[in-house]
Amino acid sequence: xxxxxxxxxxxxxxxxxxxxxxxxxxTGANGSGKSxxxxxxxxxxxxxxxxxxxxxxxxxxxxxTLWAGPEAFSRAMKRGEVPVQGTVRKGVVSLKLGFADEDYxxxxxxxxxxxxxxxxxxxxxxxxVEALWAGEALSRSNEIAGRNGPMVRxxxxxxxxxxxxxxxxxFDSMMTHAADPKDGLELLVMRERMRAWRFYDHLRTDRDxxxxxxxxxxxxxxxxxxxxxxxxxxxxxxxxGDERALEETIDxxxxxxxxxxxxxxxxxxxxxxxxxxxxxxxxxxxxxxxLRYLLLTAALLSxxxxxxVVLNEPETSLHPALLQPLARLIATAAAKxxxxxxxxxxxxxxxxxxEPGCVRYDLRKELGETVVDCADTxxxxxxxx
Length: 385
Description:
Order of helices and strands: EEEHHHHEEEEEEHHEEHHEEEHEHEHEE
Number of strands: 18
Number of helices: 11
Strand content: 25-35%
């Protein structure tokens, strides 16, 4: 389970360190920074996939994703006595992301290229520093692997920090290029954990959504990002997952209803029997809200639980009557996996906040910066360039 999340210099997240719990609930007004927090977690996961640079490019490049305000706010600025204005920068331009779980911590520092203007790729950010350590906070004594520039050093069995890569490209991460069963085992373990994180923010329910149509099915322990393999995912739960939990979840949301998967020449199709109807409804006939709830059910009751599932506004298209069942579904899933929920649905927020093991953060903006009240901010130290 992730215990601490840290972000610095990403969009409105100038400098934020948050303790997480089994369920972490993030809420706030539109524009308060919820989406930025969600994207920062996703960007961390993309480091382990080797896609961080491409992901930043898709967001408009490093200049578009960096904190756009001054390096620091003076007291007079905060009191409104003088306008917010830039100051002489003391630190380097950087975007920093990091987290710590029960075993290890990891952080990455991205910055501007050193050879800007001498390459067609001069707008690509560079990975300046990375660190992997044991425990919750980085220190000199607990660092297991570190990258500075092109050099990666790891701690060997004799307690020596030895170089394992000396010419790592500035756009490659040590998580993808130095993870090795012999000399980089901890990097390998952490990389696979990060790759197993799941994000659901593009579950499709429109009339052309893939989940509405028959599709060749294979065993699907993990629902895809758009939910196109819904029928196969539900059948996988019925065969090797918690069939009872699936039936109870559907009945909780739609009393008296049940689902069945029809197979015709290898094509799987979802059918739903609703109370009072004389025939089953095809997925193509279901309302957006009903289909979305079934998609969330398949995602959260996966027979292969992820270490982390992140839901971005799961209440979209759902009738208010489904928010309490959704909260109970999330609580059920949280018994096996850590869940982060980004939402501004008051009823869902209230229901989840009452669950044991839930921590709630209400984001707000002050002078363009996302701030959050945290009673016990964890210790956090970034690796130095």
